[in-house]
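wait is this the right file?? whatever heres the structure
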């Protein structure tokens, strides 16, 4: 049942990712591939035994795009091995899924996203070249787009799923109101920044900082994903700052924004969480020390 659930989630999020796709010659590539984030989060939560679900989900995602061919086995292998490699590297490095340390955020960025996704991008792009769907001259542009899309899936989707593992809903009505205002403001500002002809993309970063400082990963992860989805929509429509540019320039601007937003949200929230935990630990030690001193005070009966 777990394998089947992973396969269904992989395929369903793949369908969503294909709603905002980019065509390079006859190859279809997405700027954000959420299934990689699903795969890495599933491996971290359920272990490597669910890898057949990743392979099965990849197979149905390929069938959605075109008829499955024998050469597509390389894509199945790459899309399965990349998350497995990410899982192995993270476990070996002592990664904690709670993402309560800056170290964990850095590990997820480099060992979970940027490095292992080289496998899926290389296998997938060479498959497109060998099947004739992609000319050799367009290899590097397609490879970079594939790698960035897979890496963004990990950096944006995996933290969100890890944050939902133990959701802590705010009980203070003012905090709830602040969370709703944060999401609404993020959506409005991102639409204005990505659809305006002015260069206003930097306006999203104060909102990501607000989310990370006030709500840590539970707030910054949804906001970063929202910024990415709205930015991809504007880029595929060639609106705002993405207008009048070549496909390569659009992809560079888009992935630079997505990468910066993901890093800001993930690393700042991990840093704030780590500092909060340190403060709580110091307060607890001070309370314990005060209790010991009170017990040792002259004239106080000892147990």
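ok assuming it is, sequence goes like this
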């Amino acid at each position: 049942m777990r394998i089947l659930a992973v396969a269904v989630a992989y395929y369903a999020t793949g369908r969503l990712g294909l709603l905002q796709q980019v065509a390079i010659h006859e190859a279809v590539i997405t700027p954000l591939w959420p299934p990689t984030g699903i795969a890495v989060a599933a491996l971290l939560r359920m272990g490597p035994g669910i890898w057949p679900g990743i392979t099965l989900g990849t197979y149905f995602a390929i069938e959605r795009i075109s008829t499955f061919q024998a050469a597509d086995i390389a894509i199945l292998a790459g899309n399965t091995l990349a998350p497995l490699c990410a899982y192995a590297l993270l476990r070996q490095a002592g990664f904690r899924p709670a993402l309560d340390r800056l170290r964990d955020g850095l590990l997820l960025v480099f060992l979970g996203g940027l490095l292992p996704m080289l496998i899926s991008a290389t296998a997938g792009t060479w498959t497109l070249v060998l099947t004739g769907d992609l000319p050799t001259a367009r290899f590097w542009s397609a490879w970079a787009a594939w790698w960035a899309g897979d890496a963004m899936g990990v950096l944006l989707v995996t933290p969100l799923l890890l944050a939902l593992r133990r959701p802590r809903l705010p009980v203070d009505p003012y905090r709830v109101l602040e969370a709703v205002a944060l999401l609404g403001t993020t959506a409005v500002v991102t639409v204005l920044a990505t659809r305006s002809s002015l260069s206003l993309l930097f306006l999203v970063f104060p909102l990501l900082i607000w989310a990370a400082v006030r709500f840590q990963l539970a707030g910054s992860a949804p906001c970063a994903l929202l910024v990415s989805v709205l930015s991809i929509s504007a880029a595929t429509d060639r609106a705002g700052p993405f207008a009048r540019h070549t496909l390569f320039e659009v992809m560079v601007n888009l992935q630079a924004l997505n990468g910066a937003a993901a890093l800001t949200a993930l690393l700042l929230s991990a840093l704030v969480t780590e500092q909060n935990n340190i403060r709580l630990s110091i307060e607890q030690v001070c309370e314990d020390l005060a209790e010991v001193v009170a017990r040792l005070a002259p004239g106080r009966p000892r147990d």
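The mean pLDDT is 86. so i think its the right one actually
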